[in-house]
Amino acid sequence: MGGSLQKVGDSAALRLRRRARRRKCPCFLIKSGMPLFGSIFSPKKTPPRKSASLSNLHSLDRSTRELELGLDYGTPTMNLAGQNLKFENGQWVADTVISGGVDRRETQRLRKRNQQLEEENNLLRLKVDILLDMLSETTAESNLKDKELDELKISNRRRK
Q1: What is the DSSP letter of 57?
Q2: Burial, 114: exposed, middle or buried (Cβ in 10 Å; 0-12, 13-18, 19+)?
Q3: Picking from 1-5, 35-39, 52-56, 87-91, which range would have the lowest pLDDT averaged per residue?
Q4: Residue 5: its pLDDT value, please?
Q5: Which helix (H) or strand (E) holds 120?
Q6: CA 62 remoteness from chain centre
Q7: How far apart are CA 34 and CA 25, in angstroms?
Q8: Do 57 and 65 touch, CB atoms closer than 8 A?
Q9: What is the residue extent of each domain of the chain?
Q10: Radius of gyration over alpha carbons of the chain, in Å?
Q11: Are 96 and 102 in contact (CB under 8 A)?
Q12: Cβ-based neighbours of 85, under 8 Å, separated by 6 or more
């Protein structure tokens, strides 16, 4: 039975070759089994996708999900080289306590406050310097006026 199928396939190939010779078509296309018209590559059809979930959990907001399912994720934390980090307000913040019992957030707050106070102190020093300059200027003017007054008194006494 296998031999008869081979003969049928060979006779079909012979017929194609004869037609190609009549049409003056390149024979290498027929020998290689390439189709004359149509695509060489025919991919398999993709299977249909699974239907979307019928659950409405994705549409619930976080607080409702926590109430319904009891999910309490908390803040994300990780440990890098022995230092615990916590994700708060869009930034990774060190969660460990520094020596002395003060955490890093507190030290940052204190540094900012210290910088504000230093700026205020510099401004006040500048104001004091300006006031001292103004005082020395008025003192000098006062001394000049006193001197002029004394000279006027002396000249006035000489005239009498």
Answers
A1: G
A2: exposed
A3: 1-5
A4: 46
A5: helix 104-159
A6: 23
A7: 13
A8: yes
A9: 2-32, 60-96, 102-160
A10: 49
A11: no
A12: 77, 78, 79, 92, 93, 94, 95
